[in-house]
Amino acid sequence: MGTQTIFKQECGMNKSELIEALAQDITVPHREAAAITNTVIDTMTEALGRGESIEIRGFGSFVIKNYGSYEGRNPKTGKKIKVSPKKLPFFKVGKDLREQVNRNRKD
Predict the structure, then answer these.
(1) Which CA distances in Å does 19 have to 23, 29, 34, 71?
(2) pTM of this structure
(3) CA distances, 68 to each of 6, 13, 90 (Å)
């Protein structure tokens, strides 16, 4: 098995594959599926950038979490540094998605 095959299995579906799946599923040209996908991603990104949350029932929700400042260490020097407060997007899985993932689980 080549390196590309191994990487493909580890990373799952990428944006291009999502576009291709959409194009096939709703039978639209690739260009149209790409426009739809980009619009959805851009709209979600803009909403999160404004601090809004996004809820997709059954799938999950995206929220912004606020993290306060703290004292960390530079891994190279060991010197103490102050880490500034930040906001990060966080995904909270929905019940339907969680059940689907666990139904198809391979232990």
Answers:
(1) 6, 10, 5, 42
(2) 0.73
(3) 38, 33, 15
CATH superfamily ID and name for 56-107: IHF-like DNA-binding proteins (4.10.520.10)
Both structure tokens of 42? 């851009």
pLDDT in tens, 3-39: 444 444 566 899 999 999 999 999 999 999 999 999 9
- Per the prediction, the chain carries an average pLDDT of 89
Residues of the chain with CATH 4.10.520.10: 56-107
Q: Which contiguous run of DSSP H or E holds residue 91?
A: strand 86-93
Contact 58, 96 (CB under 8 A): yes
